[in-house]
Predict the 3D structure of the following.
Amino acid sequence: MRPDTRLSRMLHVLIHMQHHEGTATSDAIATMLGTNPVVVRRTMAGLRDQGYVRSEKGHGGGWVLARPLEEITLLDIHKALGAPQLFAIGLAGDNPNCTVEEAVNVSLAEAMDEAATILLAKFGKVTLAELAAGAAKASKGKLAMEHF
Amino acid sequence: MRPDTRLSRMLHVLIHMQHHEGTATSDAIATMLGTNPVVVRRTMAGLRDQGYVRSEKGHGGGWVLARPLEEITLLDIHKALGAPQLFAIGLAGDNPNCTVEEAVNVSLAEAMDEAATILLAKFGKVTLAELAAGAAKASKGKLAMEHF
DNA sequence: TATCACGATACTTCATAAGTTACATGATCG
DNA sequence: CGATCATGTAACTTATGAAGTATCGTGATA
């Protein structure tokens, strides 16, 4: 199964936009992500609808952050992307009379629900500002390494 | 994304095999699951290699449980299927010099690792015998209902 | 008015679980 | 032995959804 990389990509973009003066065009973002500007617009559309970024047309247009990174969590972006499927595992069968099938699926669903709750709770606790800070620190570390 | 239903299906089959006297052919299993016998053989191959079932050719051949359900956990079957991807979410980017990308992906990976640990721990604690017992109980409940 | 950048549509590509076809191999029955 | 049954395997097709692409419309700016 091909993994959904939209969350990872959007987080990456949003953090870069903080340092970016003015607007970032879909083309520029696409180049940074190694993808296509249409894909960028399509994916960013959800973030715009939820008020995390704004888009402007025409000369000097492009994308800008609409809220500080302190106020955006990973969970916010996950939801803005439409809260896509978290798990690659699914439940099979559609026979409502088979109690075995039902017991299996209930058990799997419970385990997955529990894991999803944990995962989304963690997503909700991490802000993009914290990720940006972590990246800045790592950057300094690298810079320091280069001096030796 | 199309979910992977192999775990759900194999658990279902194994529990039914407990009550099944003698062998169950791939055809019979496929009919029960609403799928194709070749898919059954392909998927059961991993379980056979790990010693959870045996297969016999020729007249009267088919599949039989090789171990009691008490000794098989959901995790065992997950592993026997090759421990396929749990999450539909993936990490993007391959630029080792971008600390932002790295920070984003490390954070996502940590959250997913934590959730995966929880999920697999739960899988490891549930035996197929327990699922079978739950199904039998539900079956009785249904039977009782039918009497009134 | 020309250009720039997003918005939107319609399509193609890609990856992979799932489904299908076909045939080989081995075991059992008569 | 030979027919039949069932698994083993290989090769191919289908289904699904993220991702990629081409094209044109729309609005904003110089």
Remarks:
- Chain B has one domain: 6-146.
